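Inverse folding, one chain.
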């Protein structure tokens, strides 16, 4: 099978990377760089040679790294007699919010845990959900336009009876992550004002 048909490889490496970015977001940290190591089957796989596998994997990884301004700063690539293996380590730094730790848990967090669990069950492909701080979540939709984001949000609304508000921002090339989140926040608070929703509800930034 030609590498161009091996879309599952790109999806797989995106998922591996997204898990690391999700962990950073869950700690309210800004991603900076990643270290990626590959152990490729010596005889190739999925109908492709080892070099083609590596190209397909990085072809899925690099757009995600560019989207979140994450530099690939190191790693290693080797072949061996075992199956395909990948290791991704993401490096980040704390933002002005400070690190989000378990010691900062508050009453009502159990609701957020249940909500996060219900939402995660509805995720598809490379969609990434993470606790962003306080009662906020962040949902990253790689390669998705606003219509696709709204479709994902409809799925999440059907997954839980809890009330929540949302702000959506499409990432602009060259834009910092902080600025993209700030635009989503602006839409979030605008939606809250428009609906005159005075009571507190979990919030989602997509």
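Residues assigned per position:
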């Amino acid at each position: 099978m030609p590498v161009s048909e091996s879309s599952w490889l790109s999806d797989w490496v995106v998922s591996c990377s997204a898990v690391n970015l999700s962990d950073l977001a869950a700690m309210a940290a800004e991603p900076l760089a990643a270290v990626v190591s590959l152990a490729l089957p010596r005889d190739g796989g999925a109908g492709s040679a080892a070099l083609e596998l590596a190209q397909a994997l990085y072809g899925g990884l690099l757009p995600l790294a560019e989207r979140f301004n994450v530099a690939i700063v190191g790693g290693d690539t080797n072949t061996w007699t075992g199956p395909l293996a990948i290791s991704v380590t993401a490096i980040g730094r704390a933002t002005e919010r400070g690190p989000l730790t378990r010691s900062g848990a508050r009453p009502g967090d159990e609701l957020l845990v249940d909500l996060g669990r219900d939402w995660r069950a509805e995720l598809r492909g490379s969609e990434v959900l993470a606790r962003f701080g306080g009662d906020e979540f962040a949902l990253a939709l790689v390669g998705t336009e606003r219509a696709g984001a709204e479709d994902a949000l409809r799925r999440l609304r059907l997954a839980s009876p809890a009330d929540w508000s949302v702000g959506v921002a499409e990432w602009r090339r060259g834009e910092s992550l902080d600025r993209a989140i700030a635009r989503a926040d602006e839409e979030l608070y605008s939606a809250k004002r428009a609906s005159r929703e005075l009571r507190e509800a979990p919030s989602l930034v997509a």
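The chain has two domains: 3-94, 105-205. Strands lie at 29-41, 71-80, 85-94, 128-133, 136-140, 165-167, 203-205.
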